[in-house]
Design goal:
- There is one protein chain.
- With 193 residues, this protein is an alpha+beta fold.
- It contains 4 helices and 12 strands; from the N terminus they run βαββαββββαβαββββ.
- The strands form 3 sheets. Strands 1, 3, 4, 10, 11 and 12 form a 6-stranded mixed β-sheet that branches. A 4-stranded antiparallel β-sheet has the order 2-8-7-6.
- A hairpin with a 2-residue loop joins strand 10 and strand 11.
- The chain is globular.
- The protein starts with a strand and ends with a strand.
């Protein structure tokens, strides 16, 4: 039976996604690895893990009744480059923006509550909001994660997404055209957070 790794995520508006993909390409050129395409960049809210593809409708039902798009006020800015230490480079909100009151944390909490109520196992580790830019990077130093670089690699301004789309994502078994994920979104009007 075909399987995929499922997760719930927020996807940035096209302008922010393009800016993040351009940054990912610059980061990969500097430190190696595979840059994420604009269509794949996201903020993971809850990771479910490997499931049969025929479970997708039940997983998508978790999103029923949630707003498909959110325009937070103020908009969420991503400006801090970092690494998980195993070749994954990411961009995250500045530390002062990482509190449990953000719209993303509230949405993650609700999705995780719904998963628990539906008795669907998920990774319950605390949310570390970030957008993965590159996998397989090499020689990225901790000092660069906190100070950036002096060669203009990073954007002079934070990358700001004015709107985020909620989605269920799944890793593609055979990524093509640089795309890694397939997406399913709930239907409904956008809301302002």
């Amino acid at each position: 039976m075909a399987k995929a790794r499922f997760f719930y995520a927020l996807r940035p508006d096209p302008e922010a996604a393009d800016a993040l993909a351009a940054l990912a390409a610059r980061v990969a050129a500097r430190w190696g690895g595979h840059a994420f395409a604009a269509d794949d960049i996201h903020l993971t809210l809850a990771f479910v893990g490997m499931r049969a593809l025929d479970e997708q409708p039940a997983l998508a039902a978790i999103l029923q009744g949630l707003a498909p798009r959110v325009a937070p006020a103020p908009p969420l800015a991503l400006s801090r480059l970092g690494s998980f230490g195993h070749g994954v480079l990411w961009l995250a909100p500045p530390p002062q923006a990482r509190d449990d009151a953000t719209f993303a944390h509230a949405l993650a909490h609700e999705i995780r509550r719904r998963l628990g109520a539906a008795r669907i196992d998920f990774d319950a580790r605390p949310l570390k909001l970030h957008a993965t830019l590159v996998r397989g990077a090499r020689n990225f130093g901790a000092d660069e994660a906190t100070t950036g670089t002096d060669d203009g690699l990073l954007a002079p301004e934070p990358i700001v997404a004015r709107e985020w789309s909620l989605a269920l994502g799944a890793g593609l078994p055979n990524p093509s055209d640089g795309r890694r994920y397939r997406w399913w979104t709930p239907a409904g009007p956008p809301v302002t957070a």
